[in-house]
Amino acid sequence: MGPGMGMQMGLRTEQKMQLVLAPRMIQSMEILQLPIMALQERIQQELQENPVLELKESNKDDTQSEENFNDFSEDGRDANDPRTELVIDANGNGEEDFDRLEKINQDWADHFNEEHARVSSNRVDEEGYRRHDFEQNMPSRPQSLQDYLGEQLSFVEVPPEQMRLVRFVITHIDDRGFLATPLEEIGRSYDAPVTPEQLEEALAVIQKLDPPGVGARDLPECLLLQVTPETRHRDVIRALIQNHLEDITHNRLPLIQKRTGFDLHTIGEAIEALKHLNPRPGAQFTAENIPYVVPDIVVERAESGDYTVRLLDDWVPSIYISKRYIELYKDRGSDPKAREYLKRKIQAAQWLMESIEQRRNTLEKVTRAIIQHQRKFLDQGPEHIEPLKMQQIADQVHVHVTTVSRAVDDKWVQTPRGTFPLKRFFGGGTQTTNGEEVAWETIKQKLLEIISNENKAEPLSDEDLVAKLSEAGYPVARRTVTKYRKMLNIQSSRQRKVWTN
């Protein structure tokens, strides 16, 4: 064999290995990245699409093998080694690896029986109760703004023809509670002739409904609708809404005083009242205002003071590969096409189960490593977070940094300090004047403290904040101060200034 042919065979072999390994690696990365509820959905989808996968309904399922299996397949490969390759080899029947496959099935079942207390013969009923409890704790679908407005119309006395038009206009109210579509355009799309006056009257009916400010065509109208005869400084507030919203944004109180004739104290009180008006009256009816996360991990403090890490994967369905399909594949008398089909499906099922187990192990190892670094965070609070990079965790648990990134992506951890995204524990830092590492989170907390204690009549500029932080032992650049001030939604010194007579 010439060197050229040997090289070609080597390339073909390498390409073949890549073709075999790439789908498995891709699936493992995808599964690792999924948060708990998305993983549950993925498994349910796989159960529907792969006939060899079955859901373990109870511990009495007679398809589960009761044999004691060896940890090693006949060719000497460690069945528990994550590097062990395919159950069904691309070039053979893979008979020698079926022990490994059945071992995985047994381990999978035992894992859920032992660690998740699924040995009860009433498991199905118990899971049903758990699901019921879970659904009871889930936020119900919020009532839509349109539904709410429609309900109120039953208490409004208007002629049927006008009521029909009012209901039609309500369908054009957006999620903010605004009528963004011009009345003229609404009139053209109505199924009967309608005058501009009739449209204005219909809108006036809507603008009297709850929540206050609904049906406005712009922000000033929305705010004006919320000013009632009982509102203190209502005349000042109306003047501010109609002519000075931009001046308020830029804290130009002396200019407002000059143009309105009102004193600064009254203007200040009117602005404070104005801040309590709702610029988005429909926002309370949108689903995103009900934040809800399902944590993947719980970190608990033991009596010893140490922290334990536990995965909250009760919602991961317990699955296994059906023994009858394995026996059918083993039967050399079966239809070759059917055996080839089963080969692919069994292989896919095994990959899925191993990917899920790999996800579990990786997430647990990564979280344990994070907790070791962020002990002060848990003991004393978020302001005591330590600088931590994903590469540090990757080095500690001996995985690639992209694996850590995928493991923490969209995962939440429940701790005695509250529930946080896992990414919350990572962040860069800088050195103090004493040469100690300090997290940016600590600097942000110090920045908040300095600004809260400033003289509001003469607020600190960003240059002043740099100096104050430096005095406290945190030397940072001006651009960094500006960046974190904006991240914390703190206004500029000009906007923070409190004007007095």
Walk me through what this model shows.
This protein has 501 residues and is mainly alpha-helical. The longest helix has 38 residues, at 336-373. Strands 3-2-5-6 form a four-stranded mixed beta sheet, with helices on one face. A two-stranded antiparallel ribbon has the order 1-4. The chain has 22 helices and eight strands. Helix 1 packs across helix 15 and helix 1 runs parallel beside helix 18 (401-408).
Chain-wise SSE layout:
Elements: H1 3-33, H2 36-49, E1 53-55, H3 98-115, H4 123-137, H5 145-152, H6 160-170, H7 183-189, H8 196-207, H9 219-225, H10 234-243, H11 245-249, H12 253-260, H13 264-274, E2 297-301, E3 307-311, E4 319-321, H14 323-330, H15 336-373, H16 375-380, H17 390-397, H18 401-408, E5 412-415, E6 418-421, E7 429-431, E8 437-439, H19 440-452, H20 462-471, H21 478-487, H22 493-496
Parallel strand pairs: 2-5
Antiparallel strand pairs: 1-4, 2-3, 5-6, 7-8
Descriptors for this entry?
501 residues; 4-stranded mixed beta sheet; 22 helices; two-stranded antiparallel ribbon
